[in-house]
Amino acid sequence: MKRIVLTGGGTAGHVTPNIALIPGLKERGYEIFYIGSYNGIEKKLIEDLNIPYYGISTGKLRRYFDLKNISDPFRVLKGIHEARQILKKIRPDIVFSKGGFVAVPVALAANNLKIPLLIHESDMTPGLANRICIPYAVKVCCNFPETRDSLPEGKAFVTGTPIRQELLHGDADAGREFCEFNTEKPVLMVIGGSQGSVFVNTKIREALPELLKNWQVVHLCGKGNLDESLDHTAGYRQYEYIKEQLPDLFAMADVVVSRAGANAICEISALAKPNLLIPLGTNASRGDQILNARSFEKQGYSIVLEEENLTEESLLEAVGKLYENRETYIKAMQGSSHTDSIRVILQLIDNYS
């Protein structure tokens, strides 16, 4: 039986594509292990699947001054040592990395032990963690064809992003029952990412009185971001995080408002949900979400409002336009040439393991 180590973490977007691969890996007879951080979001998500999980030390590599820049390199060195010991114990045939800084020690340890490394990059341009790891990879799976321009010649392989198959089989009626929504008004679903977005949460809640005149709103606001004063607002439901019912909530949603993380928008487009993307700005990121969002807007999948242009008026106008022209957006997404990402990536894993 072949063995594979999956790694990646820090946000759900660095974990869910790995989770999407697990059923196919099991069908192919792989014994699966996961290396993540000691207490990151990936630990809970993976342990719930009964996959053996190993935590290692990790540190963030920053482009700006921070006192942690002094201590974090030592955490990374400790993580490399820990990852090396774990890999020597497991003796996997291949390592598959979804990125995030927890993946750096694992990738470097795999290279040291001459274990083949496959990397997946969801964004249009690779992040710092993946850029560190790319020289040691046999192949880099990409979501956007444009990403090939940012990678060494011959390493890029356009696969798309693995989508959790259970998302495709939601029940809209079950979603309405869960949220206690009716069928008289359309449903607006708001997603701020696994950690939530204070900015998006604030703007949505400011616009709630007007939104609720025409919409029912289900709001996934992130851990610690509930507003108890809104608990009994008719037509509004807020949750920190949803797991089991997520397919049903997607199924009932008529329009989705989301940040523009690559994994999130790929799931939304696979479900053909008209969407408003509010990318994280360059003041808080390297601008990858803006590139992702503009690519989807260009393909006719989305409307994009950057943070500086998001007002109550622009928000209401955008969601109204999406709903009014929903068939156009749905048709564009359904007509896209979605790659069978899971099958293609599993074939690559077979080829190099």
UniProtKB/TrEMBL annotation:
Q: In which pathway does it act?
A: Cell wall biogenesis; peptidoglycan biosynthesis
Q: Where in the cell is it found?
A: Cell membrane
Q: Where does UDP-N-acetyl-alpha-D-glucosamine bind?
A: 11-13, 164, 194, 289
Q: Which reaction does it catalyse?
A: di-trans,octa-cis-undecaprenyl diphospho-N-acetyl-alpha-D-muramoyl-L-alanyl-D-glutamyl-meso-2,6-diaminopimeloyl-D-alanyl-D-alanine + UDP-N-acetyl-alpha-D-glucosamine = di-trans,octa-cis-undecaprenyl diphospho-[N-acetyl-alpha-D-glucosaminyl-(1->4)]-N-acetyl-alpha-D-muramoyl-L-alanyl-D-glutamyl-meso-2,6-diaminopimeloyl-D-alanyl-D-alanine + UDP + H(+)
The UniProt entry lists membrane topology as: Peripheral membrane protein
A GO biological-process term: carbohydrate metabolic process
Mind telling me which Pfam families this protein's record contains? Glyco_tran_28_C (PF04101), Glyco_transf_28 (PF03033)
Q: What are the protein's UniProt keywords?
A: Cell cycle, Cell division, Cell membrane, Cell shape, Cell wall biogenesis/degradation, Glycosyltransferase, Membrane, Peptidoglycan synthesis, Transferase
Q: What is its EC number?
A: 2.4.1.227
Q: Where is the Glycosyl transferase family 28 C-terminal domain?
A: 187-336
Query: What are the recorded GO MF terms, alphabetically?
Result: undecaprenyldiphospho-muramoylpentapeptide beta-N-acetylglucosaminyltransferase activity
**InterPro entries attached here?**
GlcNAc_MurG (IPR006009), Glyco_trans_28_C (IPR007235), GlycoTrans_28_N (IPR004276)
Q: Which residues form the Glycosyltransferase family 28 N-terminal domain?
A: 4-140
User: What GO cellular component entries does it have?
Assistant: plasma membrane
UniProt lists the family membership as follows: Belongs to the glycosyltransferase 28 family. MurG subfamily.
Described by its record, this protein's role is as follows: Cell wall formation. Catalyzes the transfer of a GlcNAc subunit on undecaprenyl-pyrophosphoryl-MurNAc-pentapeptide (lipid intermediate I) to form undecaprenyl-pyrophosphoryl-MurNAc-(pentapeptide)GlcNAc (lipid intermediate II).
The record, for PANTHER family, names:
UDP-N-ACETYLGLUCOSAMINE--N-ACETYLMURAMYL-(PENTAPEPTIDE) PYROPHOSPHORYL-UNDECAPRENOL N-ACETYLGLUCOSAMINE TRANSFERASE, UDP-N-ACETYLGLUCOSAMINE--N-ACETYLMURAMYL-(PENTAPEPTIDE) PYROPHOSPHORYL-UNDECAPRENOL N-ACETYLGLUCOSAMINE TRANSFERASE 1
Mind telling me what this protein is named?
UDP-N-acetylglucosamine--N-acetylmuramyl-(pentapeptide) pyrophosphoryl-undecaprenol N-acetylglucosamine transferase
Question: What's the source species for this entry?
Answer: Bilifractor porci
